[in-house]
Amino acid sequence: MSLRKFISNKTIAALAVIVTVFANTSAFAQEAAAGAAATAAKPIDMLPIYKSVAFYTLLFLLVCLFIAIIGKALRVYELTREAQDKPEGINWNTINAVLFILFLIVGLGGVYFEYTVHGSMILPDAASEHGKKIDQMFNITLILTTIVFIGTHIVLFVFSYIYKHSGKRKAYYYPHNNALERIWTIVPALVLTVLVLMGFLTWRSIFYKIEDPNNKPISIEVTSQQFSWTIRYPGADGVVGLKNYKLITGTNGLGMDFNDKNNLDDQMAEEMVIPVNKPVRLILTSKDVLHSFYMPHFRVQLNTVPGMTSYFEFTPTITTADMQAKVNDPAFKFLFLCSKICGSGHYNMQKVVRVVSQAEYDAWIAEQPLIINNDLRKEFNLPLVADPAAGATPAAPADSTATAGKDSSAVAMNKPALKK
Amino acid sequence: MSTITLHDTHNNDHHDGHDHGHHKETFITKYIFSQDHKMIAKQFLITGIVMAVIAMGLSILFRLQLAWPDKSFPILETFLGKWAEGGRIKPDFYLALVTIHGTIMVFFVLTAGLSGTFSNLLIPLQLGVRDMASPFMNMLSYWLFFVACVIMMASFFIETGPASAGWTVYPPLSAIPKAISGSAMGMTLWLISMVLFVASQLMGGINYISTVLNMRTKGMDLWKMPLTIWAFFLTAILGVLSFPVLVAGVVLLIFDRSFGTSFYLSDIVMGTQVLPNEGGSPILWQHLFWFLGHPEVYIVIMPALGISSEVISVNSRKPIFGYHAMVYSLIGITVLSFIVWGHHMFVTGMNPLLGGVFMITTLIIAVPSAVKTFNYLATLWRGNIRFTPAMLCAIGMVSFFISGGLTGIFLGNASLDINLHDTYFVVAHFHLVMGSAAIFGMLAGVYHWFPKMFGRMMNAKLGYLHFWLTFICAYLVFFPLHFLGLDGVPRRYYAFTEFEFMQKWVTVNVFVTWAAIVAALAQVAFLFNFFYSIFKGKKATQNPWESNTLEWTTPVEHIHGNWPGEIPTVHRWPYDYSKPGAEEDFIPQTVPYSQTMHSNMPHDFEGNAESERIQREWDAANGIVREQH
C-alpha cells in the first residue's frame, strides 16, 4: 500500500517537475522570441515597469512559487526516505544550529562594520565642557556593554550549536546553583553601581552649577513656537526682561513687558552667537506646544514647555572655525534643532550656532538690533524716540557703527517683528 | 487552600455536566460571544495578528517616505487619497502613521494580543482550571478590546485624520486641534478607544489574578506554577495597578479638549491667539502617562519572558536554570517598574533632583534583567536542544532582549540621555528590547501552543524560513538606527532633507527600508502557515513537544471545561526534564513521586519527613545510595 502510494507520489512529482520545466522553458522561449521581436521594432523602456506595483507583486508571487516548489521537492524527498525506511534525510536541527553559528560569525562582522563605518559618521567630540564628561561616560558604558553584548551572544549561539539535539545523550539535569546565581546578580549590580554613581555625579555637575563671580554666564533666551525659534539677548544690563504671554501681539511676538526696564535694551538675533569658553545660561520657553531645544554638538537638550521656564547652563569650548578645521569640513556649522514632536513642521526647525572669540562676539553683539521700536513704545505709552519716518522707510540701512542709534536699530528691528 | 480548591473543582464538575446536559452551543455562542477561555484566547490572537499586520503596513508606509523623501509613489495616492497627494505622504499624515503604528503595536498587539492570548489560554490550562474565574467578564474584555480596535481604525476614515501627536500624545499638541490636524476628531477617537482598551485590560487582569490566586488545582501551589503563569500573573498585577492611572490622565485630557479645563494647558498662544487656559502643566500628563507607560513596557516584555522560559526549558530538555531566581527577578522587575517612569522625562524640565533619583532606580532594574538573561544561557548549557520554530523564536527573543537591554543602560543614565533623548537611538533601543523581543516571545508562544489552540501542527520548515528572515531583517532594520541617534538625528522627522548633516543617513534609510520590506514580506510565510494550518495542518498529538505542564494532559479536541474527567492533581514542579534515573526525559507534573522512585531527589520532598523515610526505605531495599542533604 505505502509502496504504491510512494510510487504514485514519486511519479506524480516527477511528472510535475517535468511539466513545470517544460512549461517554463517554452514560456521563456516564447517570451524571448517576443522580446527579440520587440527589441527589433523599438527598444522597450523598462523604467516605468520597474516602477509599477504590479511588477513587484508578480516578483513576490514568483518568489512564493519558488519557495512552494522547494517545499514540495523537500516533501517528496522526505516521503521517499520514509517509504524506503531510511532515517530522515535532512537534519533540520543541525541546519538550524549551523545557521546560528553562521549568524554569529556574520553578525560579528556586521557589528564590526557598524562600529567602524557607521560609528565614524556620528557626532564629533563634544564642543562643551560638560559634553566631554558625557562623552567619557558614553565611552565607558559603550566598552562595558559591548563586552557583554559580544560575550553573551557568543555564549548564546555557541551553546545553541554545541548542545543541539542528539539521540545519544541526555541533557544535564541542573536546576540551580546558588553560588553561580549570586555571582551574576552581584557582578552586574556592582558594575551598575559604578555607572550610577558616575552618572549621578555628572548629572549633578551639569544641573547644579556653582557660579563663578569672575566668569558670569551670558543669559540667552530661546523661545520656541510652531515652527521657529526666537533668540533674545539680554543687552547691556545682562538681564533678560520680563514677558507675559498675554501681551503677545503681531508686533510684540514674545509678549515682552516694556514697562520692565530690563526689556529696553534686549536684543534680537537671527542666529545664536556665543563666545568660546564663556558659560552660557539658556533660558528656554515655549509659546504654543512642547518643543525640545537640542544642540547635539554641545550635548545640550532640554524641552521647552509652555507655562514653565527651564534653564540649561553650558560652556562652549571650541569655536566654529576650529571645529571646521577639526572635522575637515569648511561648511561645518553648529546647530540647534527641535527634537520633540511638535507638528507638521517638526522636521525643519533649526538655527545656526556660531561659537566665536570674545572679540568677535563683542563686535557682533553691538550690531544686533534692539527689540523695542516706536510701535511698541506707543503700545506701552513710552516716550517715542525721534525720526518716526524711519519706521516707514525700512530701506534706510541700519547704521551698524551708530552706537547711540537706538532708533536706527529699531528700524532694522521692524523687519523680524513684522514678519510675525 | 486545598479544601477550597477541592470544593471549587467539585462545583465546576457539576456546572460542567449541567452545561452539557441542557445547552447546545450555537455558532454565535461558540465563535462570537464565546465565554470559553480557549476561544477568547483565539479571538485575542487573531485580532492581534490582524492589528499587527495593519501596524506593520503603516510602518512600511513611513519607511518609504524616509527612504525616498523626494520620490512619488502614485499607488499611495490611490489608497490614501488626499493624505498622499501626488504620491507623496504629507507631513501631517506621516506623524499620524507613526502615532498609530506605535499605539497599535504597544497596546493592541503586544499588550492585548500577547497577554490576552496567552493568559487566557494558559492560565486555566496550566493551572488545572475549567475556565476563568469570570467567563462573562472575560468575554466582555475581548469585546471591549475589539470595539477599541474598531474605533482606533475608524480614525483613518475621518476628514482630519487619525491622532498624530506621537503614541505618547503629549499635550498641548494633542489637546489643541489647531496645533495639528490629527488633534481634532482623530484624537477624540484615540482617547475613547484608549478608555475602552483599558477597561478591557482591567477586566482581563482581574480575571487572571483571581483565577491564579483562587482556582489552582490540587497540589498546584504557587511554587509549582510554570514560569509562564508567574509572568502572566505579575503582568496582570502591573496592569491592574497602572492602567487606571492612564485612564485618569486620559479623562483629564478629554476634559481639557472638550470642556475647557486647564489640567495640562497654560500660557499658550497659537499664532497670535492667546488661549484662556491657565494654571495647568503639560508635565502632569507626562507623569500620569509614564506612570502607566513604563510598567506598560514590562507588561509587554514579561509575558514574552515567561513564554521563552517555558519554551527554552522544554526544548533544551532541561529544567529552567534557577527557577526561584527567575520568579524573584520577575517580582523585582514588577516592583521596580513602578518607580522608574521618570527616566522618560530627564530632559522635560522636571526637577533635576528627580532625574538623579530615577536614574538610580532605572539602572537597578537592569540587575533582575541580567539575572534572567544569564539563567537562560545556563539553561541552554549542556542541554539537548531541539530547534522547533518556537525554540528558534525564544532564542531570538533572548538575543533581542540582550541587544536592546544593553542600550537601556545608556538611556537610563540621565547624563547620557541628555544627548540621546528623542533621537533614533531611543527608537533602536525600544524596537529591539520591547518590539522585537516581545514579538519573538509572542511568535514562540504561537508556534509552541498552536497545537493546543487548533489541534493541528504548524509547518516547521515554513517556520524556520519565517524565523530566519525575520530575525536577520529585524537586526538589519534596527541596528543601524543606533548610529543615526548617536549622530543626533531626532525621531519623528518627516524627512532628512532639511539638514545637511542628516543627508548622509538617507542611504542608510534606503537600506533599512528594504530590510523592513523583506521582514514584512517574510510575515506572509507566517500568516500563510498560521491560517493554512488551522484548517489543513498535520493533526497534533496530545503532547507533541513532550512537555510536563498540565495543558498537554487535556484532549486534543477542545471541550468546555478542558478535562473530560476529574481535574488532574499536581505532584511536582513543571521542569523535571532529563532527570537522572527517569526512563523518559520528561516527567509530567501529574506523575506522583511514588511512581518515580528511581529519579527522586532528596530536595524533591521539601523536608517532608514521611516521604523522605519512604524514599530511604525504598533506596535501601533496592540498594541505591543517594547523597543526602
Automatic annotation (TrEMBL), chain A:
The keyword Signal applies. Binds a copper A center. Residues 1-29 form the signal peptide. It is found in: Cell membrane; Membrane. Residues 215-367 form the Cytochrome oxidase subunit II copper A binding domain. One of its GO terms (molecular function) is copper ion binding. The chain crosses the membrane at residues 53-74, 95-117, 137-162, 183-203. It is a multi-pass membrane protein. Residues 391-405 have a biased composition (Low complexity). It holds the Pfam family COX2. It catalyses: 4 Fe(II)-[cytochrome c] + O2 + 8 H(+)(in) = 4 Fe(III)-[cytochrome c] + 2 H2O + 4 H(+)(out). InterPro entries: CcO_II (IPR045187), CcO_II-like_C (IPR002429), Cupredoxin (IPR008972), Cyt_c_oxidase_su2_TM_dom (IPR011759), Cyt_c_oxidase_su2_TM_sf (IPR036257). Its EC number is 7.1.1.9. GO terms for cellular component: plasma membrane. SUPFAM superfamilies: Cupredoxins, Cytochrome c oxidase subunit II-like, transmembrane region. This is Cytochrome c oxidase subunit 2.
From TrEMBL, chain B:
Gene3D superfamilies: Cytochrome c oxidase-like, subunit I domain. GO terms for biological process: aerobic respiration; electron transport coupled proton transport; respiratory electron transport chain. Keywords: Electron transport, Heme, Iron, Membrane, Metal-binding, Respiratory chain, Transmembrane, Transmembrane helix, Transport. It is a multi-pass membrane protein. Signal peptide: none annotated. The chain crosses the membrane at residues 44-64, 93-118, 139-158, 187-209, 229-255, 288-308, 320-341, 353-378, 390-412, 424-450, 462-485, 505-532. Its main location: membrane. It is found in: Membrane. It holds the Pfam family COX1. This is Cytochrome C oxidase.
